[in-house]
């Protein structure tokens, strides 16, 4: 029974992560604009050069294997933004053990 509950929770949580994720380029927006877009869109991928960062709002919505943290990235003016709600790799997660 416990395994069924865990499996159902995992399936429901993975379904909530599916769906369109808005993508923006960090160098096209100011720090304040990026923070506002994160709050409005709920799921956001911010491009920073070749890679990027994923954000989920509210923070409880990060995917399996990720944890909520702060991150910094440059904005359109070259200023370093310190943003909360970043979903980053969590080496302590059971999802990331090989």
Radius of gyration: 15 Å
What is the count of helical runs? 2
Q: Please state the structural category.
A: alpha+beta
* Largest β sheet strand count, sense and barrel closure: 5 strands, mixed
Number of domains: 1
- The span between the termini is 26 Å
Order of helices and strands: HEHEEEE
Record field, number of beta strands: 5
Physical arrangement of strands within the biggest beta sheet: 1-2-3-5-4
The helix content is 25-40%
Shape: globular
Low-confidence stretches: 1-18
Beta-strand proportion: 35-45%
Average pLDDT taken over every residue:
80
Give a written overview of the molecule.
By secondary structure, the protein is of the alpha+beta class. It has one domain (20-96). The protein has two helices and five strands. A five-stranded mixed beta sheet has the order 1-2-3-5-4, covered by helices on one side. Strand 2 (43-48) and strand 3 form a beta hairpin. It is globular and about 40 Å long.
Give a brief description:
The chain has 98 residues and is of the alpha+beta class. The protein is built from 2 helices and 5 strands.
List keywords for this structure.
single chain; 98 residues; alpha+beta; five-stranded mixed sheet; 5 strands; 36% strand; disordered N terminus
